[in-house]
């Protein structure tokens, strides 16, 4: 009986850890790119940036926390995570066809579910539709960009948590 209780506590502790684990934006981006390539619907860097932003928003709504701590910047065409942007910048507007073959999110059902759901919802959208969707009044991007005054300024991650209730 004691071993069963210990096993249950360890199992529940593992769940708690995965729910509280934060990933890097790069790990989440690799998961998105891999999913899209494996399902024969690759995305461009522009699409990836917007999907990554929507993932962070949705994860905050569903869990009250952030999926990753890396910040976005408010650029003219919407939010950009600079490290992820640079990783794929050499591709220009071409589709990212890389398959990573494994994901840091694989053992985290909550994170995987949110990321996969958001990715599948948005990946087939025209990139400019995604840009428009990030420019919603009151969004974290809008609150930072402020009509261009905040161009390339860091979007405060607290804005995602503020918008979680929206």
Automatic annotation (TrEMBL):
Organism superkingdom: Bacteria
Pfam families: SocA_Panacea
Domain Antitoxin SocA-like Panacea stretches: 48-141
Protein name: DUF4065 domain-containing protein
Species name: Gordonibacter urolithinfaciens
């Amino acid at each position: 009986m004691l071993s069963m209780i210990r096993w249950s506590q360890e199992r529940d502790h593992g769940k708690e850890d995965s729910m509280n684990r934060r990933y890097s934006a790069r790990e989440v981006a690799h998961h998105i790119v891999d999913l899209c390539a494996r399902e024969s619907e690759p995305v461009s860097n522009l699409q990836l940036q917007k999907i990554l932003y929507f993932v962070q928003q949705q994860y905050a709504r569903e869990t009250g926390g952030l999926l990753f701590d890396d910040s976005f910047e408010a650029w003219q065409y919407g939010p950009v995570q600079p490290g992820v942007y640079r990783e794929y910048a050499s591709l220009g507007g071409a589709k990212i066809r890389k398959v990573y073959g494994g994901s840091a999110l694989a053992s985290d059902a909550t994170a995987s579910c949110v990321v996969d759901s958001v990715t599948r919802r948005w990946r087939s959208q025209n990139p400019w539709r995604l840009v428009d969707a990030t420019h919603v009044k009151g969004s974290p991007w809008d609150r930072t960009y402020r009509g261009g005054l905040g161009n390339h300024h860091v979007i405060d991650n607290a804005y995602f948590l503020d918008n979680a209730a929206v």
